[in-house]
């Protein structure tokens, strides 16, 4: 029983120590010292665990907000707006602020999935196998559908048999190589992007 | 313009965008402008958070933007409220147009020169009197010419400036044409068409005009609420006319802010993965244009006057970047290796051609067409016809899983066992997992770092392309075929790093930046580029982004401290030349003085003989305001532009209020009703834009005007929390929790009429398909009184699908495939539909009749199809083209089946090449750029006949 009483007394004492209102009446700021509690004093920002921080750009709309991505051992632990950016000055919208959820979503794919013709299921396949198979079928389809000259004799050097459509979240460097290799190399003309539609 | 420039506007009109919800951080600058006293206006069919934060909300019916903007143009002209000094100096308002020009007020909604049969215009009738004017953008050259215009611009000479009448009295000067053209767009007409109350409309006009001029500037902000119409380009053009009349271009707080939707949608246009362009707005050569050799192409496409006169330097430097040492003057820098177009190979025609069997394999990089493209069921049908499909994404998208969870499978139209498509789903890196650059909506290129290690098989698209390229280069290494030379000749020596052999993105960016070829020294500016093969440059507009080996300006992070003394030029790189505002010469008066101290940006520094200012001047740095071209010497390029011609990318340096060439559906914007509309066009006899690209076919039918079966206007949009068709935000736990499932917004009056209560299930239907979704009854949508009767509008977010945490039916199932005449952009904002209470029953879902498998036709059957095309010469909306294409592709399929996996004999390769050329021609006639060309099809018929005669 005394033990119980002491426990209640401790809790009351703890509450009185942590109760913000008396300190606010005493003139302390509700935004700093008056907001502190026993628990908050022991809290540490998770950023302290980061071993790396780098500048990224928000992957959603085209406003171009800068983000600071904090990582520990190569895995993300926090994403926030970059206060230096003249565009967002540290702010982010609900999508941008949720970028950590994009990076760590349980739904992310981590391995190659393959569906054979007429199959009813995905199969996991090695990346190297998939790359070789894709290269082989790309070559086969290109060779089968290539047009060198039109019936009127004009050269076209193209294939309509393969198309590529992209999302507008790819890097400029990636788009450049897609157009260069698919267009300038393979002769594909149906190369399109979300940027049109 | 840069987003932060909006903070300096005195009035901002947001139209075709829900900026506060969809570009929330960009909206900061609108809020800042408001705090400084600016008037904010929102014109939109829905009352949204953007409306709530605006001073004036003007409701309009979807698809009537040109009527509204045309009304503003009329208001400005009628009351003489235009910025006369700016307009007279910097626009083509005084240009005199040929007497052959007639406008829609004379021709019941058409401009002169329409060829009904081909569904396209001959632009000869829109030219300045005495001299045709070429299109300003290289992008348009490849697309625009018809046989007549080729002759028209055949000799691109310029001995004198276009004729002008500075008194503006000539009945065929642009000013008089403009007045006549917009005469009927009265406030009463605006109210009748758009449903916007007259007083509200006039309040918008008053705010705009009183906040424009010497001391004040106004901006417009738009998003896909403008572009996603078959008249999207013309809506933006109407805004250009307003901003040109009010002098709001190239000035702080003035301009037109295109709020683009994805983080590098601007970059994907600049360094395009688009069919009609090579990097940074160079035209992709076209088989049906004088592009047979490099010499021909440069001769045909080089604009005589203005900055685009430098076109050959950029084109040759690109070829040098791609084909390196193999590109020499003797082989025209490998020009013949570039594939040539035979038609419109943009996404909508590709989607249709995929259904017909033209496309055999498809790569999908981070796009999700089953959700994001219109007519989702038709997209699924196309995917099911493919031989193979490669999807690269961070998540299992609807596009990747259509074969087991798609609507066709759910409805029993197909079983997975029936679908022969071989599918690869490859995990792709998120931004912080790779290096690279993204270009924001203000042309600001920003580098992002690789901070995280990709898990498992996650790889960047850069990795995928470099490694796929390496493998294919190896597969083709020993080939002696001429057609394989481009692959062998392509420069493809990319450094690989680390365990995962990741390519170095900076090396690719430096290739885009350009170098002098001999010593590989990076160029600091596109002014260093040459047309003799001594320089290589992958994208001329990005030259200067990495001006030296140790300088990556895209990674620079030095914003201005306070104020905007350099326009944040130390932060990232804005093309061209790190210039923040394009056409900023217009911020100074003709003499080179700022129009006002409040709105100064660049000015002429007479003491030093150069242009100065808070930005990189968009002008020849040392050209004085008093410079005038000497026309007796036949000046070319920039020499032909005066010191008072700010719009240097336009051949004559002036803002084009009237556009003589470059547009396929008219030199001035006209109000047409949307393709699907509840009413007849109140302004003209012509109902819809006559040049619209339409492709009706079973499964892609359109609703007739005022079809009583589909009485409601239907619009789509996205949400703050859920981003576009990409699965990304639906797979992010907290955004998915905030918007957990699909809904349709219904006005209370309609809900009452239909007996629908809050959160009841309703079925939405069009001729394309039906979906079920819960109703959210809200007065954010209000009934419109249009042309004397009540019109209801309903709206639905298009961001849902069957994958991820937040799910719901796909709104785009309801939409149809047709496109803007200029851009082939689809239309998602103004269609019609029906709504009924209840759910989709088994019987209500109306599965499409199963299409019987196509039996391989005989050669004679295919030939008969082609003969029918030649005999009927059907317009592009006929089904004969589709039937002929299906037959041809099935015939090809049967031939390939015969050869099997064995390497084909040389004779067979040649036969296949010839058969493919017939398919290319039929495709080009079906999906032409401009009018269809029948001669190539006649030749194709002959070739096919001789092919089958060999059997």
Largest sheet of chain A: 3 strands, antiparallel
Distance between the termini of chain A: 74 Å
Give the SSE order of chain A as H and E letters.
HHHEEEHHEEHEEHE
Distinct helical segment count of chain B: 29
Major sheet size, sense and barrel closure of chain B: 6 strands, mixed
**Radius of gyration of chain A, taken over Cα atoms and rounded to an integer in Å:** 29 Å
Distance from first to last alpha carbon of chain B: 62 Å
Cα radius of gyration of chain B in angstroms? 28 Å
Q: Oligomeric state of the chains? A: heterodimer
Mean residue pLDDT of chain B:
93
Strand order of the largest sheet of chain A: 1-2-3
Q: What percent of residues of chain A are in strands?
A: 15-25%
What would CATH call the homologous superfamily of the domain at 3-261 in chain B? Dimethylsulfoxide Reductase, domain 2
Q: How many helix segments of chain A?
A: 7
Q: Which structural class do you get from the secondary structure elements of chain A?
A: alpha+beta
Number of strands of chain B: 34
Organism (chain B): Rhodopila globiformis (Rhodopseudomonas globiformis)
Family (chain B): Belongs to the prokaryotic molybdopterin-containing oxidoreductase family.
Domain Molybdopterin oxidoreductase (chain B): 5-402
Cofactor (chain B): [4Fe-4S] cluster
Would you write up a description of this structure?
The complex is a heterodimer of chains A (197) and B (951). By secondary structure, chain A is of the alpha+beta class. Chain A has three domains: 2-42, no CATH class; 46-104, Single Sheet (N-terminal domain of TfIIb), CATH 2.20.25.90; 126-193, no CATH class. Helices cover 36% and strands 24% of the residues of chain A. Chain A has helices at 2-18, 20-25, 38-42, 94-97, 99-104, 127-145, 172-185, and strands spanning 52-57, 66-72, 75-81, 113-115, 123-124, 146-149, 155-166, 188-193. With 951 residues, chain B is of the alpha/beta class. Among the domains of chain B are: 3-261, Dimethylsulfoxide Reductase, domain 2, CATH 3.40.228.10; 693-837, Barwin-like endoglucanases, CATH 2.40.40; 859-949, no CATH class. In chain B, 29% of the residues lie in helices and 13% in strands. Chain B contains 29 helices and 34 strands. A six-stranded mixed β-sheet of chain B has the order 27-29-28-34-26-32. In chain B, strands 3-2-1-6-7 form a five-stranded parallel β-sheet. In chain B, a hairpin with a 4-residue loop joins strand 13 and strand 14. The longest helix of chain B has 21 residues, at 906-926. Chain B is globular, with a radius of gyration of 28 Å. The chains are: A alpha+beta (197), B alpha/beta (951). Chains A and B meet through strand 1, strand 2, strand 3, helix 4 and helix 5 of A and helix 13, helix 16, strand 10, strand 11 and helix 19 of B. Chain B: One of its GO terms (cellular component) is cell envelope. Chain B: It comes from Rhodopila globiformis. Chain B: Keywords: 4Fe-4S, Iron, Iron-sulfur, Metal-binding, Oxidoreductase. Chain B: Belongs to the prokaryotic molybdopterin-containing oxidoreductase family.
């Amino acid at each position: 029983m005394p033990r119980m009483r002491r426990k209640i007394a401790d809790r009351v004492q703890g509450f009185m120590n942590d109760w913000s209102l008396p300190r606010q009446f005493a003139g302390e700021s509700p935004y700093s010292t008056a907001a502190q509690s026993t628990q908050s004093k022991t809290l540490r920002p998770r950023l302290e665990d980061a071993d790396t921080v780098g500048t990224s750009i928000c992957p959603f709309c085209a406003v171009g907000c800068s983000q600071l991505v904090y990582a520990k051992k190569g895995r993300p632990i926090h994403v926030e707006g970059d206060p230096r950016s003249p565009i967002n000055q540290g702010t982010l919208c609900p999508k941008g602020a949720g970028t950590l959820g994009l990076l760590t979503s349980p739904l992310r794919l981590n391995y190659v999935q393959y569906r054979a013709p007429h199959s009813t299921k995905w199969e996991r396949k090695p990346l190297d196998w998939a790359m070789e198979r894709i290269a082989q079928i790309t070559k086969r389809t290109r060779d089968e559908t290539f047009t060198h000259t039109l019936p009127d004799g004009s050269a076209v050097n193209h294939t309509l048999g393969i198309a590529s459509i992209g999302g507008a979240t790819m890097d400029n460097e990636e788009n450049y190589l897609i157009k260069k290799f698919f267009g300038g190399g393979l002769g594909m003309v149906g190369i399109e992007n979300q940027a049109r539609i | 313009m840069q987003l932060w420039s909006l903070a300096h506007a005195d009035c901002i009109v947001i139209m075709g965008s829900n900026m506060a919800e969809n570009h929330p951080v960009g909206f900061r600058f609108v809020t800042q402008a408001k705090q400084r006293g600016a008037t904010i206006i929102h014109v939109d069919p829905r009352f949204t958070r953007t409306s709530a934060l605006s001073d004036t909300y003007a409701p309009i019916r979807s698809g009537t933007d040109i009527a509204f903007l045309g009304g503003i143009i009329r208001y400005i002209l009628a009351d003489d409220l235009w910025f006369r000094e700016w307009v007279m100096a910097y626009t083509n308002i005084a240009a005199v147009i040929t007497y052959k020009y007639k406008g829609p007020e004379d021709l019941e909604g058409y401009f002169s020169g329409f060829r009904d049969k081909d569904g396209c215009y001959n632009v000869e009738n829109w030219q300045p009197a005495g001299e045709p004017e070429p299109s300003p953008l290289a992008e348009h050259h490849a697309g625009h010419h018809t046989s007549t215009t080729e002759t028209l611009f055949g000799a691109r000479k310029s001995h004198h400036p276009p004729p002008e009448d500075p008194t503006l009295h000539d009945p065929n000067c642009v000013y008089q044409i403009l007045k006549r053209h917009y005469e009927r767009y009265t406030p009463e007409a605006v109210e009748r068409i758009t449903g916007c109350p007259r007083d509200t409309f006039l309040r918008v006009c008053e705010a705009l005009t009183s906040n424009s001029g010497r001391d004040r500037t106004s901006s417009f902000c738009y998003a896909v609420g403008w572009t996603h119409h078959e008249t999207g380009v013309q809506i933006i053009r109407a805004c250009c006319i307003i901003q040109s009349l009010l002098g709001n271009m190239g000035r702080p707080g003035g301009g037109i802010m295109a709020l683009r939707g994805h983080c590098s949608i601007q970059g994907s246009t600049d360094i395009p993965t688009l069919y009609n362009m090579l990097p940074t707005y160079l035209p992709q050569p076209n088989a049906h244009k004088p592009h047979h050799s490099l010499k021909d192409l440069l001769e045909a496409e080089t604009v005589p006057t203005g900055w685009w006169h430098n076109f050959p330097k950029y084109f040759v430097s690109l070829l040098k970047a791609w084909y390196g040492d193999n590109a020499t003057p003797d082989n025209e820098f490998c020009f013949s290796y570039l594939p040539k177009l035979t038609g419109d190979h943009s996404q909508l025609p590709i989607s249709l051609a995929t259904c017909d069997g033209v496309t055999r394999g498809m790569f999908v990089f981070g796009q999700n067409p089953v959700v994001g493209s219109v007519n989702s069921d038709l997209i699924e049908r196309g995917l099911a016809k493919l031989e193979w499909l490669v999807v690269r994404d961070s998540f299992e998208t609807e596009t990747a899983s259509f074969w087991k969870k798609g609507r066709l499978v759910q409805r029993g139209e197909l079983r997975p066992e029936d679908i022969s498509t071989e599918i690869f789903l490859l995990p792709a890196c998120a931004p912080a997992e790779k290096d690279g650059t993204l270009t924001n909506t203000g042309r600001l290129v920003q580098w992002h770092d690789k901070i995280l290690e990709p898990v498992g098989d996650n790889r960047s698209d850069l990795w995928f392309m470099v490694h796929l390229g390496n493998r294919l280069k190896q597969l083709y290494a020993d080939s002696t075929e001429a057609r394989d030379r481009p692959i062998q000749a392509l420069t493809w020596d990319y450094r690989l790093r680390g365990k995962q052999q990741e390519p170095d993105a900076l090396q690719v960016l430096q290739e885009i930046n350009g170098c002098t070829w001999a010593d590989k020294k990076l160029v600091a500016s596109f002014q260093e580029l040459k047309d003799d093969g001594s320089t290589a440059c992958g994208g001329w507009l990005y030259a200067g982004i990495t001006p030296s080996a140790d300088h990556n300006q895209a990674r620079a992070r030095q914003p201005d401290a306070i104020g905007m003394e350099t326009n944040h030029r130390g932060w990232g790189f804005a093309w061209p030349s790190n210039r923040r505002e394009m056409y900023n010469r217009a911020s100074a008066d003709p003499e080179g003085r700022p129009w006002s101290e409040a709105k100064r940006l660049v000015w002429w520094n007479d003491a030093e003989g150069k242009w100065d200012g808070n930005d990189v001047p968009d002008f020849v740095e040392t050209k004085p305001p008093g410079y005038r071209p000497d026309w007796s010497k036949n000046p070319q390029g920039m020499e032909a532009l005066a010191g008072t011609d700010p719009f240097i990318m336009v051949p004559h340096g002036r803002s084009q209020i009237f556009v003589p060439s470059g547009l396929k559906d008219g030199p001035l914007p006209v109000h047409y009703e949307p393709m699907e509309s509840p009413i007849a066009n109140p302004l003209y006899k012509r109902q819809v834009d006559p040049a619209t690209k339409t492709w009706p076919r079973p499964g892609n039918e359109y609703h007739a005007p005022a079809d009583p079966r589909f009485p409601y206007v239907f619009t789509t949009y996205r949400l703050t929390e859920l981003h576009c068709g990409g699965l990304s935000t639906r797979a992010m736990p907290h955004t998915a929790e905030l918007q957990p499932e699909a809904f349709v917004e219904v006005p209370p009056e309609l809900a009452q009429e239909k007996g629908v209560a809050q959160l009841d299930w309703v079925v939405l239907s069009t001729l394309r398909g039906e979906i079920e979704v819960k109703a959210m009854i809200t007065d954010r949508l209000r009934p419109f009184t249009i042309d004397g009767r009540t019109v209801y509008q309903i709206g639905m977010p298009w961001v849902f699908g069957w994958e991820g945490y937040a799910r719901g039916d796909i709104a785009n199932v309801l939409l149809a495939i047709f496109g803007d005449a200029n851009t082939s952009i689809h239309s998602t904002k103004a269609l019609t539909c029906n709504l009924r209470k209840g759910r989709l029953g088994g019987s209500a879902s109306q599965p499409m009749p199963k299409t019987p498998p196509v039996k391989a036709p005989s050669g004679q059957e295919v030939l008969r199809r082609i003969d029918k095309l030649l005999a009927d010469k059907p317009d592009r909306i006929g089904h004969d083209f589709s039937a002929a294409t299906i037959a041809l592709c099935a015939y090809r399929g049967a031939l390939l089946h015969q050869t099997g996996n064995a390497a084909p004999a040389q004779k067979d390769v040649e036969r296949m090449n010839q058969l493919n050329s017939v398919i290319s021609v039929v495709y080009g006639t079906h999906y032409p750029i401009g009018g269809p060309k029948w001669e190539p099809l006649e030749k194709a018929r002959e070739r096919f006949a001789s092919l089958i005669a060999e059997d």
